Amino acid sequence: MNKRRAYYAAAMLSAGALALSACSSGNSDGGGGSGKSTSSGGGANGATASVQSVTLGTAADSTGPAPAVAGAKSGGTVHDLEASGVNHLDPAQAYVNQEQVIGQLFSRQLTNYKIDAKTGKTVLVGDLATDTGTSSDGGKTWTYHLKDGLKWQDGTPITSDQVKYGIERLFSSYETAGPQYLQQWLTGSSSFRKVYPGPQGGKSLPDSVIATPDDKTVVFHFKAPHSDAPYAMALSGSGPILKAKDTGPKYDTAPFSDGPYQIASYQAGKALELVRNKNWDPKTDPIRNAYPDKWDIQLGVAQPGLTQRLEAQSGEDKDSLALVAPADPTQTSVIAGDPKYKSRLVSNYQPFVDVFNINMTRVKDVKVRQAIMYAFPMQQVQTALGGPPQGDLGTSLIGPTVQGFKSYDPYGKLTKPQGDPAKAKELLKEAGVTHLKLTYAFSNQPRWVTVATTLKNAFAKAGIDLQTKAIDSTAYYTLIGKVNNPYDLYRTGWGADWPNASTVIPPTQDGRLVADNDPNYSHLNDPKVNSEIDRINAIADPTQASSEWEKLAEYIMKNDVPEIPYEYDKYYNVYGDGLGGVSYNTPLGTLSPNTVFVK
Amino acid sequence: MLRFLVRRVLGAAVILVLISFVTYLLFFALPSDPALLSCGKNCNPQNLALIHKNLGLDKPIPVQWWNYVVGIFAGRHLPLGNCPAPCFGLSFNNDTSVWSLLKDRYPTTLSLAIGGSVTFLVIGVGLGLISAWKQGSVFDRVASSISLLGQSVQIYFIGPLAIYLFSVQLGWLDRGHDPDWTSDPVGSLTGLVLPCLIMSVIFWSNYSRQTRSLMVEQLSEEHVRTARAKGMGSKYVFFRYALRGAMGPIVTIFGIDLGSVFGGAIITEATFGLHGLGNLAVSAVLQSDLPLEMGVMLVGATSIVFFNILIDACYAFIDPRIRLA
Asked: How many domains does chain B have?
């Protein structure tokens, strides 16, 4: 998931630390789903919410209709207030969580996440497919069967060749924003467009790559085993496209629906109105209850007005929520401090882990990197960014929403979250460094200016002279993304694309990928890590692989220290109490629209 | 009159061409790469090169600029689709036609600019006239103090306070929403009351002080004293002689302020969450969306130039001694 734009969208200004009680999500009607967070008694130290693992469902779990939500009724309009616009409506272009979650209302995939509105239990099930897929050939071949009764908004039946066309379309030259897992897995190449340029020239992928032996069956032949395939099939682009309605790049503003709603009107950056798709059959859909008649999605709603509207819930705002936008940091203390919000508050982890990268091209001595780790004042940084409602302190490279999450803290950061300057000095002495001077680059937004001051003061206590370098926010990633950048320390973030560390460790820690703009921003290139990535990628059992990823992540932190993980991001906001069945989509880190109803 | 219009329009065209070129150069002077905001997690060299090509960033800057200018009049065929004239390009971020976005957002900014202008002219000139009429009175002193205070506050400071007080707490006024004059004229009006009032504060404070000063000056002019000596009534002299003399400079100031009015509208939109050109400009800058930045810049500049020409033309009607040539 794209953390960059998530940062642009979210205004995370400092608002002071909040009580731990604010991290819980009570919900009288069972809404909030997995937002029923539980305190571990750790204060602001470490993960404080429990997250249930996402499991693979059976064919029975994949059968529609979706289980009824207690007390739910059909009808009404839900108003979704979003702080930013939606950049892409074409499912093939959707990567940011906002695009993916809103897309669930009008597009369906082969698989998707079924969320219990009461318990928050999340299961990956077949969406258009009858199950999460059957593998053969050691995990290289995956077969999906489509359900009966699937239709487009004009009543055209959904067939396997449309699924194949939808996947072929991902190769098109204009589809540059979406995930590229399937394209790379099918061709075995990162330069997949050289292998197949897309369907525009009339060429189709051969049956040896994607076969459709009948109208209901799709068979994917990957070049290597991919035990994660069921999860990749839940990404927005893993669905059908009706060729007759494919308008090329323009599809991005007017997609054709196979979900419960269709687009009635769209004003980019301003408003998106969705009305019922009469040809959607609830009996085919195990995850979407689709209770409301209409979704009124208001885009570009300014903060803190957005949060204040949800707090005040006057008029139509009583039936409003923010699927993606978290509460404005200036309002989190208001929400946390007043018990009246508790029944309509959702606080839960997002898949993002925020880190400070140490540029290993410049800071080569591991003892120096460990000294930086010890000196780092994670609690002060957390406070400057808005306190626990914005995120809990975290020390793992892999966040708590990922399967097999394991908390480890080799440098005692959770014990001394304000930093340990004495230990840092000791390590610097061992390394023979007498006057360490570091350059810290940050985006010139107010919250990061505050953090820069916080860091400078804390590092000074450890005898580290931190030179701060503000960069225009639009140029930030361009500059820190260069391998030969002149900075020692900078902040980035990364989110899992699905709840498995295979979407976290390989892209961010594989030294063979180091290049300009590659997400291995620390430039870690440890041969052992590289070989472990290959070994774990080949493990067929996802559970075993998850455990191995965690071990590798811990090894990296103990031996290489390329990054300083400091916070697991959270979704924290209230919704109008005219709504019920509000659940939380942990893999996306957003509220789920699928179980919501107007009371 | 015709010569005046032709000369001004040609001058305006030169200004707009220069603005477009300078904006282009400034955009590329920054080290940011807009493709990085479009590539998601896939910022590998192949994908970045493809995005550069799709966005038209693979050509030399002068060629890009020339294609852009030609496209406004003749339309363009872009890698991501056809763009009929007037083509201001496609947004880098959502592939939407910039022209359609501008058409969608312009009414909000224009409504705010006109509504705010009417508000600050009525309040500012009105207060100034009363203060000048009642020089040295309590009203005059209070009005002067309020004006001074008003000039010292900013929209982004009093805006949220006003929303909290009048909308959230008291519920007297709508917190502001986009106007839709065709389907909901009354709602459009009520939705603009608070934004226009807040936007007008900094302006009417200035106009109040300027009007009072100009009127006091005019009231001491010889032709005004002569009129009084002839036995004309105070009100007649005040409005017929003094006000007429003061109006010319006020209109001049208003012409100069037009740019500030659009600037004020932009800040007001951001404060009240309205979807106008200002809002569009902010997101364009934050997302390095060059076509959108160019579109907003050109439409804003064209508006200011147009209204300046209009105001210049108004001089002739306000002061018959002025002849347009």
From this structure: 2
